[in-house]
Design brief:
Oligomer: single chain
Number of strands: 7
Largest sheet: 7 strands, parallel
Strand order of the largest sheet: 3-4-2-5-6-1-7
Distance between the termini: 34 Å
Strand content: 25-35%
């Protein structure tokens, strides 16, 4: 069964993603970051490449996506692995249950919290064990 972890009240989603993805890559995990658009994927990809730690990543529609540990996707048909999924969309990904780990990243804005609560209830009502990490402002 998919392990679900919620991070809530995130002041800077991209910084948390960078930190978590760096840890995952160091452990040789496969990561899909599921974003709302191509533009969001391109922006995050650029930030990942700028990190001091080497975080190889590629947009999901690139030919080398199947060979790269971090893939940034915005459409379900882009998903090529089933290890770790970082959901940055407001809806429950219909394909989430194929992943070993699902990370839900909820910002501090009211609309993020409302959508996050709905996703939390969805997973809870279906019997998924959920870990919750509330982020502290620094």
């Amino acid at each position: 069964m998919t392990r679900v972890r919620f991070y809530t009240d995130i002041p800077d989603r991209a910084s948390l993603i960078l930190h978590l993805v760096e840890q995952a890559v160091a452990r040789q995990r496969q990561v899909t970051i599921y974003l709302e658009s191509t533009a969001a994927a391109e922006q995050l990809s650029h930030r990942l490449w700028q990190q001091p730690a080497f975080i190889p990543n590629v947009l999901a529609d690139a030919p080398q996506a199947g060979l790269t540990p971090v893939v940034l996707a915005w459409l379900p048909e882009h998903i090529r692995q089933d290890d770790m999924l970082f959901n940055c969309q407001t809806e429950v990904p219909k394909f989430f249950s194929r992943f070993r780990h699902l990370f839900e990243l909820i910002g501090a804005a009211d609309h993020d919290k409302t959508a996050g609560r709905q996703r939390y209830a969805f997973y809870r009502d279906r019997g998924y064990e959920i870990q919750h990490m509330k982020m502290q402002a620094q």
